[in-house]
Amino acid sequence: MHVSSGRWLYGFLLALTTTMLWGVLPIMLKEVLKIMDPYTVTWYRLLSAGLVLLLWLAAKRRLPSIRSLSTRNRGLLVVAVLGLAFNYVLYLMALNRLSAGTMQLIIQTAPVMLMLGSMLVFRERFGIGQVLGLAVLLPGFVLFFNQRLVELMTQMSGYTLGILIAIASAFSWALYGLAQKQLLTVWSSVSVMMVIYLSCAALIWPLATPSQLFSLNAVQTWLLLGCCLNTLVAYGAFAEALAHWEASRVSATVTTTPLFTFSLVALGAMIWPGVIEPEILNSLAYLGALLVVCGSALIALAPSLMNSLKQRRLRRLSVTPPPAGS
User: N or C: which end of the chain has fewer CB within 10 A?
Assistant: First the structure.
C-alpha cells in the first residue's frame, strides 16, 4: 500500500496548482472554440501530451509493450481510449453551449459516477459519509439550476442539450476511469496515459482540421498552447501531489475547481468584458454551487474520515479500564 511522504504542505500546493489549472482551462477553451471545432482542439491537446510522454518514456527506456497485455486488458484499453476520447470531445461540445462555471460544476458528477461504477465492478463499499455527501450534492444541483429548472424539464433548448452532453461527458470519463484503474495493475500511470493519449489522437485525427491553427489570432494561439500544456502539467502536479499527501485530501482539494472557475470568470469579466462573459446567477445558484462542491468534497473525504473515527474509537476502547469485578 502506498504511503505518502508526509510533506503535506508541498502536496497541498501541488493539488492547489492542479485545481487552479483545471479551473482556468474551460475559460481558455471557450476562446479557442470561437475558431476551432471540438475535434481539432482535442486532437492538438491529446497529440501534444502523448508525444511529450512518448519522448520522456523513450529517454527513460520504459516504453510499454502492447504484447504484454492480456486479451482482457486489451479490451479494457479500448474502453479507456473510447471513454477518454468521448469525454474530451463531448466536454467541448457542451462547453460551446454552457458557461465555463456551469460546465465545471456538472463535470463534478464524473467522480460520483466513477464511485458508483466502482461499487458495481470492484464491489467497493458505499459508506454513510458518501451517502451524506450525495445528500448535500444533489440539492445543490437543484439550487444551482433554480433559474432554469422549468426550461430543463420542459424544453430541449440549447442549454438543456448542453447539460445532457455534459452528463454524457462525465459518464464517458467514468468508463475511462474504471478501465484505467484496472490497467494500472499492469502498466505505470505514465505509460497508460501515453498510450491512451496517442490512441485517442489517432482516433480523432480523421475528424480534425489541423489547418484551423492558422486561423487563430496571437492570443488564441497562446491559449491553445496553454490548453495543451495544461493537460500535462495539471495531471503531473496531481500525480505528484498523491505522492506527498493523502489521496482523499488531494481529491477533496480538486473538488473546489468550480469555485476557482467562477472566481476567475468574475475577475476576467471585469478585466476583459468584451472577451469573457460573466456568469448570470442569483444567490440561490451560488449557494447551490457551494453545496455541490461541499458534497463532492465530503464524498472524497468520507472513507478517510470514517477510518479516522474508527481508529479513535478503537484507541479509546483499548485504554478504557475493565469494569469492576472483572
Answer: N
